[in-house]
Amino acid sequence: MSAQATARVAPPAFAPRPRPEREAAPAARLRVVRAPAQARTRVPFVLVCMGVLAVALLSALLLNTQMAQASYAIHDKTNELARLDQDQKDLVAVLDHKSSPEELAEAARKLGMVPAAGTGWVRLSDGSVQGAPKAKK
Fold it and tell me: Which residue among 30, 43, 104, 106 has its CA within the 20 to 30 Å range from the CA of 21?
């Protein structure tokens, strides 16, 4: 006998189990469907964006206009303040000039006043004048 005839093949230690047969699912029926309609348009979004842009531009324009008006008002008030300050300085200079002793003496002479020869005082208890000076002639 040959070597091949006497050799037997041993069965594998584990054998794969047969797969259970699946139930055949019914074939899906195919049909033609329409494309879904677009749910929203972009028009409201675009309008909102344009509105926000318009409001931003208007607010920037109004703010710029207000700042320009305030700048002109500040310039005018600064000029007025400088003019009033100069007027005050001029009036203080005139007052200082008129309150000088020479000017006061000249103004008194024009009013008919004469320089006093001496000093006198009034007694308050009886109202009498003590040490009354005599006018120069």
Answer: 30
Give CA 44 to chain center in angstroms: 32
Residue-wise DSSP of 63-87 = HHHHHHHHHHHHHHHHHHHHHHHHH
Q: What pTM was computed for the model?
A: 0.47
> For the chain, what is the total number of helices (H) and then of strands (E)?
3, 2
Beta-bridged to residue 130, according to DSSP, are 121
Both structure tokens of 98: 């008129």
How do residues 68-111 score in pLDDT, each as one tens digit?
999 999 999 999 999 999 999 999 999 999 999 999 999 999 99
Asked if 120 contacts 131 with a C-beta cutoff of 8 angstroms, the reply is yes
**Phi and psi for 36 in degrees, rounded to 5?**
-65, 140
Q: Which helix (H) or strand (E) holds 130?
A: strand 129-130
Q: How much is the CA Rg of the chain, to the nearest whole Å?
A: 60
